[in-house]
Amino acid sequence: MTSEQGGRSSRSNPGAGNQGAGGTRRRDDSGRERNRSTGRNRTTAAPSQRSRAADPARLVAFEVLRAVSSDDAYANLVLPSRIRHHKLDRRDAGFATELAYGALRAQGTYDAILARCVDRPLSELDPAILDALRIGVHQLVAMRVPAHAALDQTVGLARAVIGAGPSALINAVLRKVAAKELPEWLTELTAGLTDEVKVASIEHSHPEWIVRSLRQALVAHGREVSEITALLEADNSAPVVNLVALPGLGSLDEAFEAGFTPGELAVDSALSSGGDLGRLASVREGTVRVQDVGSQLVARALAGVDISSELKDGEERWLDLCAGPGGKAALLGALAAEKGAWILANEPTPHRAKLVEQALAAVPEHTWSVRTGDGRDVGVDHPESFDRVLVDAPCTGLGALRRRPESRWRRKLSDVTELGPLQRELLTSALAAVKPGGVVAYVTCSPHIAETITVVEDVMRKRADLELLDAGAALDAVSLTGNLGAGNTSSELATNKMTAQLWPHIHQTDAMFLALIRKL
Ligand SMILES: C[S@@+](CC[C@H](N)C(=O)[O-])C[C@H]1O[C@@H](n2cnc3c(N)ncnc32)[C@H](O)[C@@H]1O
Q1: Keywords, A to Z (predicted)?
Q2: Does residue 207 have its Cβ closer than 6 Å to ligand 1?
Q3: Is 359 annotated as a binding residue?
């Protein structure tokens, strides 16, 4: 909640998570920041007298929303190129980022508000008009943009890029939206609802099936279902940038000089909520990499786990079965190099396999090799060949919603079902490729139990030569705190007890799942 809205309700704002530069100060009609304290003025000018030009920062946000809704684009890929194209300065880039990401994340809530203000189903609106409205709503309810500026600038944008007719409609609708504050809207939208999932879905802008899945995952991992609010809020906030210095190869000194702070969970990690990464030579060289701390921890847990003593003679062979684009492969490669081990990084998609090679470029060449192929064949092609195997399985990514503002609306429950057979086949292939006594780490950046515990249970149920290691303890052993609480010891189910789940609202990481399976 912004201070402009202070003193109103403390109900969280689903779109207010990513406060860029423009989100922390007032901006005037032209999109420039001002420190002057203005009230929540309603515009008095008629639409025809208002701005006819599109403010570049709002135009960028609008173009991002259009690319996402009409071309299935990824916001995090489109945004930087639109910012460059329109030559936004740092401040306007911050405003555009906040506007685009905020409007995308909070789309569920905003569409529910808009549905009350438009005299026809939203599906009958021109999609460009709907995107302009979403941008307008975000400014009105989640940013410190005075109402008159939000209205004037959004109508100006619509007039410039859609046309005069729609701009009148947009003006009329946004005036209705502006008549109430967000808490009033939420109260109105949830009045009479008794289903907690529906209420959370509206208040925190997540599809109902995702709210249901996350509640189920919390409970399966022995956590309180009441944590769902904190988890959904964490999904709606912008993640800080996490760095890792590749062990033996990189140093964080330069990052610390640039304002990064030491990470509290993983060794050789650093955090920052801002800063220009491009300025860091170590990042350009690839010896320091951007990587979520959860990903760092699961890779380190696999590298650190004790394997049986017969395997310890000679060089260990490691396998990263689903390596693209190579984040964990780079960290594992550096750890392998330190331990005198060698790693094969496998990825079926040629352009992603190239990214894996680039990620590994900073690691001594004799330590790694990249295979471009289907991971399901590796178990047959290389039976009982590896000491440690990572299966970072293709998944729905429901644990990384903070990073991908549009993905919650794009993902479907059917994706979970569709990915299930592939996840099982990849884990089965990994178990064929690992040597007896060796360990397979099954990892997902989704906490959905159909992608995590159920996959592990299904694959293990069919065989007697596998045992689960304590993944929570393995994470603790490589963490700086030694007490992450990611293990599920309070769970009543045996499989759940031995697996581990990191959470954005507790660990400030992506919701990474880890199971460690030893082949006997
Ligand atoms: C979650 S991502 C892996 C992320 C990677 N480990 C990292 O840290 O950068 C899953 C990867 O699995 C790959 N994949 C999809 N189908 C696969 C298959 N049949 N065999 C192996 N990998 C596959 C995808 O292309 C994707 O790059």
Answers
A1: Methyltransferase, RNA-binding, S-adenosyl-L-methionine, Transferase
A2: no
A3: no
Q: With CA atoms as reference, report the closest residue to 346 among 313, 319, 365.
A: 319
- Report the SS3 class of residue 416: helix
- In contact, 19 and 98? CB cutoff 8 Å: yes
User: What is the C-alpha separation between 196 and 202, in angstroms, rounded?
Assistant: 10
**Minimum CA distance residue for ligand 1 atom 7:** 327
Is the CB–ligand 1 distance for residue 397 below 6 Å?
no
Is residue 20 within 8 Å of 210, Cβ to Cβ?
no
Q: Strand 466-469 and strand 513-519: pairing?
A: antiparallel
Q: Mind listing the domains of the chain with CATH numbers?
A: 3-184 (1.10.940.10), 240-291 (no CATH), 293-519 (3.40.50.150)
| Closest protein CA for atom 13 of ligand 1 | 322
Decide which of 245 and 165 is more confident.
Answer: 245
312 a known binding residue? no
Amino acid in the structure at residue 339: K
Ligand 1 centroid–CA 186 distance in Å is: 39
Q: What secondary structure does DSSP assign to 244-291, as a single string?
A: EEPTTT--SHHHHHTT-EE-SSBTTEEEESS--GGG-HHHHHTSEEE-
Annotated binding residue 397: no
323 known ligand binder = yes
Tens of pLDDT, residue by residue over 430-441, are 999 999 999 999
12-42: b (≥16 Cβ within 10 Å) or e: bbbbbbbbbbbbeebbebebebeeeeeeeee
Cα separation, 205 vs 217, whole angstroms: 18
Answer for the pair 17, 105: CB distance below 8 angstroms, yes or no. Answer: yes
352 alpha carbon – ligand 1 mean position (Å) = 9
326 lines ligand 1 (CB under 6 A): yes
Output the pLDDT for position 38: 35
ipTM of the complex: 1.00
> From its phi and psi, is residue 164 left (phi > 0), alpha (psi between -120 and 50) or beta?
alpha
Residues with catalytic roles: 445
121-148 mean pLDDT: 96
Rounded to the nearest 10 degrees, the angle between the axes of helix 90-105 and helix 127-142 is 110
Tokens for 493?
A: 């189910």
pLDDT digits 0-9 by tens, 357-410: 999 999 999 999 999 999 999 999 999 999 999 999 999 999 999 999 999 999
Question: Half-sphere exposure (CA, 13 Å, Cβ side) for 34?
Answer: 12
Q: Which two structure tokens, joined as six digits, stand for 22?
A: 């423009």
Is 248 touching ligand 1 by the criterion CB < 6 Å? no
Ligand 1 contact, 424 CB (< 6 A) = no
> How far, in Å, is the centroid of ligand 1 from the Cα of 38?
50
Query: Mean pLDDT score of the chain, rounded to an integer?
Result: 90
- Report how far residue 98's alpha carbon sits from residue 103's, in angstroms, rounded to the nearest whole number: 8
Q: What is the helix (H) or strand (E) element at residue 135, kind and residue range?
A: helix 127-142
